[in-house]
Amino acid sequence: QSYCHRLQHDMYFLTSTSRLNEQVVDKIVLQLNRVYPQILTNEEAEKFRNPKASLHTRLSDLLKHLQKKGDRHCQEFYRALQINAEQLFNDLPSRKILKTPDPTEIDTDKEQYMLNDRGPVFFLACFSVAAGLALFWYCCNSETQVIGRARRILGFSPIIIGRHVRNICILYLEDISRN
Questions:
Q1: What's the whole-model pTM score?
Q2: What is the pLDDT of residues 37-84, one digit of tens each?
Q3: Which intervals hold domain CARD (predicted)?
Q4: Among 18, 45, 96, 129, whose Cα sits 20 to 30 Å from the Cα of 175?
Q5: Residue 67 sits in a domain of what CATH number?
Q6: For residue 158, what are the CA distances in angstroms to 82, 140, 173?
Q7: Going by C-beta distance under 8 Å and a sequence separation of 6 or more, which residues neighbour residue 31?
């Protein structure tokens, strides 16, 4: 989409009340007057900065003038708008259309949310179960002699697992060591 078409699409949004204040419009006009190549001549800049005319009229005339001049002029207006009023630039209707995703694309932000919607408690619970199963499998393996070490680890873990569960695990380890 050309910048002239985008500017035509955004014209109502930009000229509506309290979107752009007089200071921002003056900064944009000055920037368009001073940028290389010069977009607005000195006479045109004075015309669009005239405090006797209403802000709405000046802004409407400026946008129509830029559309008549061509795509490069409209592009420089968008650049000036981005520099001087970035929040307004991001809220432009034409920017929202450009940001609309293709329905066939995968939205990675949404996909990340879908994968992580369970939260940290779910992760900790799964990790604890996996660590417990790994420890249990390691301790039950007859080739390893880690019963004493496992007892020490379980003895220091009343914070991680409950006292009753810890006692059951220690009793099980002692029973295995006797066999």
A1: 0.54
A2: 688 999 999 999 988 888 889 999 999 999 999 999 999 999 999 999
A3: 38-96
A4: 129
A5: 1.10.533.10
A6: 58, 21, 17
A7: 80, 83, 84
